[in-house]
């Protein structure tokens, strides 16, 4: 029972860390793109938000999947 709980904690941590890193990268990249392509007015905030959430979701998914794969290995 302890091993499953440990694995779940690792996967949850992986998703959280991936989401945080992805959100930060997405915010920076979204801001850069919004300025570069001269997105008008309040659409800039929407564009940055979409980029941030999309990037956070993708990074979180992949880091969580990697943590899940890594849970099955014993060294």
TrEMBL record:
Transmembrane segments: 7-32, 52-71
Keywords carried by this UniProt record: Membrane, Transmembrane, Transmembrane helix
GO BP terms in the entry: protein import into mitochondrial matrix; protein insertion into mitochondrial inner membrane
Family matches, as SMART domains: Romo1 (SM01378)
GO cellular component: TIM23 mitochondrial import inner membrane translocase complex
Record's keyword annotation contains Transmembrane: yes
Family to which the UniProt record says this protein belongs: Belongs to the MGR2 family.
Name this protein carries in UniProt: Reactive oxygen species modulator 1
Organism: Acer negundo (Box elder)
């Amino acid at each position: 029972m302890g091993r499953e709980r440990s694995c779940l904690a690792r996967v949850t941590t992986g998703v959280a860390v991936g989401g945080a890193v992805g959100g930060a990268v997405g915010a920076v990249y979204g801001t850069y793109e919004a300025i570069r392509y001269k997105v008008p007015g309040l659409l800039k905030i929407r564009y940055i938000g979409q980029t941030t959430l999309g990037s956070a979701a993708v990074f979180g998914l992949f880091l969580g999947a990697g943590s899940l794969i890594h849970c099955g290995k014993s060294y």
